[in-house]
Write a structure and sequence with these properties.
The structure is a homodimer.
Chain A lengths: L6 H10 L14 E2 L5 E5 L1 H23 L2 H10 L12 H19 L2 H17 L8 H6 L13 H19 L3 H16 L14 H12 L2 H13 L34 H18 L2 H17 L31 H18 L2 H15 L17 E2 L23 H11 L6 E3 L3 E4 L4 E6 L2 E7 L6 E8 L4 E8 L7 E4 L2 E3 L5 E8 L5 E5 L5 E3 L11 E6 L2 E6 L12 E13 L6 E10 L5 E8 L11 E2 L2 E2 L3
Parallel strand pairs in A: 5-9
Antiparallel strand pairs in A: 1-4, 2-6, 3-20, 4-5, 6-7, 7-8, 8-13, 9-12, 10-11, 10-13, 14-15, 15-16, 15-21, 16-19, 16-20, 17-18, 18-19
Enzyme class (chains A, B): hydrolase
Protein name (chains A, B): Non-reducing end beta-L-arabinofuranosidase
EC number (chains A, B): 3.2.1.185
Chain lengths: ~625, ~625
Amino acid sequence: MSVQSDPTITAVDAQSLGGGPVQPRAATVLTPLGFADVRLTDGFLSRLQQENATTSIVRGQQHLDRQQAWTNFANAASGTVGQPYHGPVFEDGEAFKWLEATAWEHGRSQDQQLAEWLERYIELVASAQAPDGYLSTFNQIAGKRDRYEWISYDHEIFNMATMIQAAVARYRTSGARELLDVARKAADHLDATFGFDKRREMCGHPLVEMALVELYRVTGERRYLDLASYFVEARGHGTLTDPTWQGWTSVYFSDRIPVRDTVYPEGHAVRAVYLAAGATDVAVETGDHELFAAMRRQWDNMVEAKMYVNGSLGSRWEGEAFGDPYELPSDRGYGETCAAIASIQWTWRLLLATGEAKYADLVERQLYNAVLSGVTLAGDRYFYVNTLQVREGAIPYDDRMGAAGRQEWFGCSCCPTNLMRTLASWHHYMATATDAGLQVHQYGSATVCGGGLQLSMASDYPWRGDIEFIVDDAPDGERELSLRVPGWAAGATLEVVGDPVPIVPGEYARVRRSWRTGDVVRLVLPMTPRTTRGHHRVDAVRGSVTIERGPLVYAIEHVDQGAGLRVDDVAIVSTDLAQEWRDDLFGGIPVITAAARNLPDGDVGRLVAIPYFMWANREIGPMKVWLPIDA
Amino acid sequence: MSVQSDPTITAVDAQSLGGGPVQPRAATVLTPLGFADVRLTDGFLSRLQQENATTSIVRGQQHLDRQQAWTNFANAASGTVGQPYHGPVFEDGEAFKWLEATAWEHGRSQDQQLAEWLERYIELVASAQAPDGYLSTFNQIAGKRDRYEWISYDHEIFNMATMIQAAVARYRTSGARELLDVARKAADHLDATFGFDKRREMCGHPLVEMALVELYRVTGERRYLDLASYFVEARGHGTLTDPTWQGWTSVYFSDRIPVRDTVYPEGHAVRAVYLAAGATDVAVETGDHELFAAMRRQWDNMVEAKMYVNGSLGSRWEGEAFGDPYELPSDRGYGETCAAIASIQWTWRLLLATGEAKYADLVERQLYNAVLSGVTLAGDRYFYVNTLQVREGAIPYDDRMGAAGRQEWFGCSCCPTNLMRTLASWHHYMATATDAGLQVHQYGSATVCGGGLQLSMASDYPWRGDIEFIVDDAPDGERELSLRVPGWAAGATLEVVGDPVPIVPGEYARVRRSWRTGDVVRLVLPMTPRTTRGHHRVDAVRGSVTIERGPLVYAIEHVDQGAGLRVDDVAIVSTDLAQEWRDDLFGGIPVITAAARNLPDGDVGRLVAIPYFMWANREIGPMKVWLPIDA
């Protein structure tokens, strides 16, 4: 089937072309902006986005090439079964996540090299697709098993889902339909194969739910939404089994309890949260209020009892899984980078649907403290696991471990490619529009256009908390500008064209007025360091505090400690914190210091804390986020 | 080769026949007693030993029969390759551990049913052995791989090692040599196959080191000691690889660092500690003082930084492994029952070699708190994992989990059979002899004969701390009676024939005198409940205490808490502990109570603690060993 042959497609283009990730068709409280409407112009995140483009994506292409990920597609295209297959069964998915990142980045930069890669690899992918739309090169090449014979393990549907997401990104950022054609053929194959009245199964690894809803959003093809809804409803009845004897259970697969009855996300964290994001998409597009309420409850419970202070998810290495409620030992923190990224995707969907500031607060917490920790500042090495503590004498027996330091690539390299697509599309998460006006959720230096307003935002965020907005263009009549005041920002102030405006942390400051070009708005978020205590049920943090400053969770790393303070033994003797700008660290950052001493009764000194996500960018050694108090 | 043909055997018999586990040939500070020299006559441990005989061993025979463990031997005897194999590759080893337990129990009770089983199964085992001595039914039946092709995974040498241990037990308790012949043939096969100048490899799962040294002790065949020494020295050079792609590393296999250079035991806890016990045997028999010093250092470091308060070992589920030093989160405690048993075996060897009370102290701590917790009081269900905490809402997704409760059997049932052989031979760990006299290490009601003295010991230990010894027979002249005063027994008193004798906790009370029949010795170990704090590096126990009483670690279980106290939220508000005898619990035990309240600011009540090892004998629910202090 060719895309052009679909009568709905042209109508859809007008609204979907130019969009970013997540463009709801159903009415939501907030409307996302197009990929051209927000642009990071300067500052910390802008530089990271640039590193992502020039280092991460470029090296990613080399790594995937070295791993022969694309060779698999060439071999599948040849149609010969029994050829050597390269990588894990989900290698296609990593190639497609990289392809999606490349599409977003190309949309942003129009870089020629990226354009060439996109054309070359999309052509290769199209040639590898089976005539009936099936596409998963492991099964096409190796021919070890029938299609979907090991549906819980072989990631076939997952692989097609990542391709669909890449196709949506490619289409929205360029209007090019080649990959979208492949995506529709794959989706039609899935639709012809799976359903309550067809093959009543689902993939061991959720993702297709989100992908199908987005494809529905682009094409207007209702069947894709219905199929996504099927995959959500079919799950949770204990039908997935473990063909590999690795001890996976229905808990691992998020298949123990139907999604709409689930109270806490459980099992493999990335799978559970991808599923939750997809279920939220389905609820939004189908207007299923019961399902939507269930997803909000799941999110509240996850944040309350199954999330580390830095926003990372997953406290069990076995099964890369969520633990029981409040089971959050720092030293065993798994916090897969992909899990935090999946949570941002889920949380962003809840924000669009509700407009509640707590969702934007979590997106910020997870980006800075659980996602950015997954990559070096240079953009060349990655953490798969984001632990909150590394001790003296830790043995790096596993390349995912904190003590092993960040790695250039992994046998399972989902996290690097997931980071790439997240950073390449990060600007989409910064602002939204409504009929009334513009909402700014995340801060930095950027130009923002939406809801009738065009603004320039200038800030050295997250290092400094003063953010200046200048109105570059505004229509006649009143427009509302909404600025998120983070929950942590006690004492925040807002000044609109010289007049102070009262604001409340944890809510949006809403300013409705007739704007003129040149109007200036100043939001000041106090960057006073603070200490945070944990829930009394979390044993590992009892009698301890974390240091936070603005959106950043801080950590102590051995290399910064003087006066013989040892990370494994140090305790804070006073919660009076001081901050100090250090030009010599990472090109200039604020460090936080506190009076401390070694337990049980060692020397006193001042410990030095740096932003958690920056740890392990120098040498690898002991690190700790939670600090005992001996005051 | 027939045992009778060995000229050394007869000479050896005299000294080895009648011995218990571990009968050193080299001179050690303490000499173990024969299996007939110590007999539990009454009391708690005696009843457990009886349950082990009448319930555990009997049901074990049924479980192994159901699992067709013996069918594997019958099929191997038929010599046909390609037949169905039943159970994991180490199923032979579980059958042999049960056979060893049966041998010790038969030696103790002379039970006819046990005698029949021993004869039947030993005949079957002999018929299954290959002509050259090889015996591992998985490889013999399935014929999937060459012998030792997957030496790190297939447990072939491990399986033969468990058979050798069973053969030694059978021989020492009966003089019967049928299985000893099989053991020697297997050992000769191993000796002909492995060595620095032969096949330079070793088993992925240590155990053969201990087994070969014991076979040397029985037979006097030096080659077996040399081969054990080879297996110890060959390890630690990173030669073991993972054929199954499960991510096992040289750390997992205790193959990263040579045994004599290892500072902390690491990797798979059971393997690491079996290896340590075998290396200690080798050091003792070869007089290798450097290796012996290294094993003592390893033990000190394990106890200091890698052991839970209850004596259980292993804080990582992934790889069933030791964590980094001080990485001991209660909620993720793995504490495999086999690991604590292995530690008792290792620690007993160090005790015999040194006579230091700290070793007997640990044997006691691990028996009561990390081994007995592995089986129900009825002897019919088992814990594989001994966690220190179960929360509300814990999902029992794995039958090893505390929240799943004890199980009748496991796919990997090493723990039940290991418990059986430990309880059936427990009396051997109670006392030793020297030329000077008799040493009593563990207390209860028993008759003890050694070092020239014959005693009756009467005590309701561990419930009550007063222990009475009556001399039943003594020679002319002076003999020394040594009684361990546990490190926890502050305020202990000793009265010898009416006269008080000063004693020091953590040391042996040594009384040298001319004894007369009827002399009475009274040792009183105060059973005052106490609170214990953890090391400041163990984050999960910060600001918390455990309750201990005598040798027992206590825990709180949800079923005992009144006044709405919740296990997950309760904190002690005063460390003034009270104890109360409760006839209604488990046939009568002392419980400990303390003023407590629910955090953050709930009602006040008195929490009720029971001995940790007795938890989950009623219903399964929240349980906790470490209690926060809110005083």
